[in-house]
Amino acid sequence: MRAVFFHTLRESLFRRVGMVFIGVGVLLFLVYVWSNRFVTQPDGSVIVRAGSNVVSAETFFRNNLEGLLGMTASLWMPLGLFVAAPLLASMLEKGWAELIFSKGIARWKLLLARAAGATAVFLFALVWLSAGPALYVWAGTGLSPQNFFIGLSLVLLSYFSVLALMTLVAVAQPNTALLVIVAFLQLVVSRVLNNRDIMLYEVVSWEWARAAIDWLYRLLPKNAELQFRAVNYFRYGVIPDWWAVWSTALFTVAAFGAACWLLRRRNL
Amino acid sequence: MADLVVETTELAKTYSDLLRRRSTQALAGVSLEVAPGAIFGLLGQNGAGKTTLVKILLGLVRPTAGSARVLGSDPGDPPARRHIGYLPEQMRLPEYMKAESFVRYMGRLNGFDGVILERRIPQVLERVGLAGEKRPLRTFSKGMQQRLGLAQALVHDPDLLFLDEPTEGLDPIGRKQVRDLLVELRNAGKTIFLNSHILSEVELVCDRILILDRGQVVRAGSPREFTESTGEYKLRLRNPGEAARAAVAAVDAEAKWDAHGCRVRLGGVPELNALIDRLRANGAEIEAIEPVRVSLEEYFIQVVAGRES
């Protein structure tokens, strides 16, 4: 499994998108550090010089990290999924699948190691894009980013759920473009389903259709809600309702399980 | 090692296309037993079921019916597959890798690691003629890719090898090297399944041959059995004269003559010796005598054409 994991990392660098993703992360982190300076006042308080603005450490901490969390969920996570798409699809390409699946390693291990490799690329990028800035702010202001990291873990769960869905689709139809579409659709659909009362039920009046939409909402990952929960947790330190968390986690496990089962039965 | 390397019973595979409501029978009840230490040639036209059979034995494809055992285990059993090497007909190599790192990766997937693997990599690369090759795989020619495919199939020192068109893209010297390698591996006790369209090559190296047609085994035997003597001999004579012609006509009135000798049908070795005695007695000078055999290619075409008609 280790060999597959490292091979996936290597492939992601070769495919440029992974390298660019991590490279952009490092660059943005450097820009972040360069543009946000912490200055300790004579009274011991800390202020932050963000460009031409000067704000208190608390204000900067609250606004900046909340923005970071939102950006991670709405921008970096989709990018991470798009980076993962070719890595998942290429494993099952004709000529390569025969080579690796004829080796003395179980199919599910190959699949999960591949998904883990794709996740690692995303995590490497997140170290620079989210975790790095949060730690920098912690070092500068002394304010604990614990809530930020718990919020970030909810975004990670959201990432895993879509990755699991993409893995399942990749086993059935290993096509990069299709996987990108699936990821994009899932992120959009989760938003629509979360707001189905105002976005769907006003135009869908049939009971059976509403019931189907409700079931779809229950089954699919709640990515939009997880983003909302992540930001809320950072703000208030509580998760008022765990439904989105556990149902998404359940979906993730089930989708990875189904992908492994399907791959085991698939003719290559 | 198990007594039989490969054992299949009534193996069948039907590919179904649900969308088009169509199904294709790739294998229809193939039973075979393969003992260790032999080169086993699989022959058949395109679509005869050769690749499907190999893929089932590797656990890449699930059979619709029948059963198979490979090295005493179910096909696809990962621990058993660590003793199997496979060279697919079509390979997509990672362009950014180099020969050494690619073979290392393939070795690791087979649970091979550490010093043994590191020692083994240069050995197999040298054996296939890629020693010291440092260029990325994207620059490799078809022949070099094929050699690398062989290297990855051999890196973990497997007991059983499935080679699909191993000499494809190789020049004559490369083909000879591969043939020598196969014989060397067989002599070392390995069992080799060879899929090839180059029948002259199969004839040269295989100990047993299986001819598949439309998913069924239509012939199985040794190349010698398939290419046995036709009962005809080619006689090459120096200055064949009337006396020689008369001697030959006495045993085969329909012998075909050309400027250098004749092609004569005889009942067996005693008749051949009697003819030689008669020719010598008539003063003929014999340059060469050669039994006429059917080539494997001719035999294969006869079998397949016979079934089609």
Structural commentary:
The complex is a heterodimer of chains A (268) and B (309). By secondary structure, chain A is mainly alpha-helical. In chain A, 77% of the residues lie in helices and 5% in strands. Chain A has one domain (2-265). Chain A has helices at residues 2-14, 17-35, 57-90, 97-101, 107-141, 146-172, 176-194, 196-199, 207-219, 223-236, 243-265; strands at residues 36-40, 46-50, 53-56. Chain A has a three-stranded antiparallel sheet. In chain A, helix 1 crosses helix 2 and helix 5 packs antiparallel against helix 11. Chain B is an alpha/beta fold and 309 residues long. Chain B is built from eleven helices and 13 strands. In chain B, the strands form three sheets. A six-stranded mixed sheet of chain B has the order 5-6-7-3-8-9, with helices on both faces. In chain B, helix 4 runs antiparallel to helix 5 and helix 9 packs antiparallel against helix 10. The two termini of chain B are 43 Å apart. At the A-B interface, helix 1 and helix 4 of A face helix 2 and helix 3 of B.
Q: What would the CATH topology of the largest domain in chain B be?
A: Rossmann fold
Q: What is the arithmetic mean of pLDDT of chain A?
A: 91
The whole-number mean of residue pLDDT values of chain B reads 87
**N-to-C span of chain B:** 43 Å
Count of discrete domains of chain A: 1
Structural class of chain A: mainly alpha
Overall 3D form of chain A:
globular
Name the biggest interface: A-B, 23 and 30 residues
Q: Name the helicity range of chain B.
A: 25-40%
Spans of chain B of 5+ residues with little confidence (pLDDT < 50)?
Answer: none
Please give the order of strands in the largest beta sheet of chain B: 5-6-7-3-8-9
Tell me the helix content of chain A: over 70%
The run of helices and strands of chain A is: HHEEEHHHHHHHHH
Strand line-up of the largest beta sheet of chain A: 1-2-3
Give the C-alpha Rg of chain B.
24 Å
Question: How does the major sheet of chain A shape up?
Answer: 3 strands, antiparallel
- Number of separate strands of chain B: 13
Oligomeric nature of the chains: heterodimer
Q: Give Rg of chain A in angstroms.
A: 21 Å
| SS element count, helices of chain A | 11
